[in-house]
UniProtKB/TrEMBL annotation:
InterPro entries: ADH-like_N, ER, GroES-like_sf, NAD(P)-bd_dom_sf, Quin_OxRdtase/zeta-crystal_CS. This is NADPH:quinone reductase-like Zn-dependent oxidoreductase. One of its GO terms (cellular component) is cytosol. It comes from Nocardia ignorata. The keyword NADP applies. Residues 13-301 form the Enoyl reductase (ER) domain.
Amino acid sequence: MRRVQYERSNGPGVLEVVAAEVPVPGAGELLVRVEAIGVTLSAIRRISEAQPLRAEVAGEVVAVGDGVDGYSAGYRVVGVCDADAYAEYVLLSVDQASAIPDGASAVDAVALMRSGLVALGALDTVAPREGETALVTAAAGGVGHLAVQLARVRGASWVVAAVSDESKAGFVRELGADEVYTYDQLHCGKQADYALDGVGGSDLGNTLTGLADGGRAVTYGSSGAIDTEDLLASGKTLTGFRIGRLAQRDPARYEDLRQEVWQHYASGLLRPVVHAEFALDDAAAAHAVIEQRTNLGKVVLVP
């Protein structure tokens, strides 16, 4: 089979496709013939830090290890692969796997599951109330474009979207955003009751600027410095969110969110958008799209 690996010599690291043996599933594992792989910023960061290549994958089960119940060859599944995920065949822990419903493609599955779970989990954490105003940052990205739609599903009366470039405004408006700003313009728009922050970093302060007094923000982006005096003076709150932590601490709730994502997809209320599909040989180009923040929706590798 073919697999992408990260190589670093004296110069910058590179992604290259190599020949590898098809892995053998161990206890509690599925061997999956991969049809689609989701590319995320967190995966790119892990690679640059020489950590295992972890990513969301979707495809067909071709073999199962000992102790696996509920799956057999022929099942179509989506889940997070913990290592060597950019490959034609991967091992997927059975507790990381979720069945793909009939009618859903593998590409839609990787565009929906992890990103949709992050967006929906962040919404749950911020506890939206009917009729409130929502702010979504990184709104054109893999998570953000789903968060814009889910905020409306969960009762937002007005959705403000923040993007890195004004050229993305039309895209997020088509998804349901009422106002669109770049991060440094957030003080100009309608102040939101709550924010779902996917950008973090130096722009986290701008996200809080876009909140009304007493507003709540949940961030699933990278960490960044904030002005705590502003939080105190205006009664705003900021909560960090990680979907992996929720999966470990409350697997029942995690499963509920997973089912809800599929329900909204089946009803047509949640529409995943794929920016582009890349071959394994073009993994570096897929990474560049994410790093340069030019994507509109999800970036996917298709072996």
